[in-house]
Amino acid sequence: MKQKQSSRRRRSSTKSVLRLPDLEHPKTAVYLQTGQDQLARNVRDEVSSYSDRFGETPRAAYSALVGIPARYALERHQWSEAAALQIRKVPMPLYEAETYFARAIGCARTGDLAGAVQC
Fold it and tell me: Where do the structural domains in the chain lie, given as residue ranges?
């Protein structure tokens, strides 16, 4: 009986640490594709406020941390916003590529070809 109570306690404490489920990234894409920009902006702002990893897996967390702001700018064709994205360093550099890509597209679309080459 004591084992079951301690395992329940352990599970509940783990869940309280998690801030967002792994579905926030796809949910943002759906919001953008269906024209619900305010809902997508809310998710982007919440994710941007995190300073470190969240969620259940590193892959989902880092993809959301750097991918949601980049996709938010690109999907809405906000080229200057995309060009001004800050690079967030994460332990998995693969996910930083989304921001570099968005910045390069933003720079190219605003006519800053030198900036696009540097990205």
Answer: 19-118
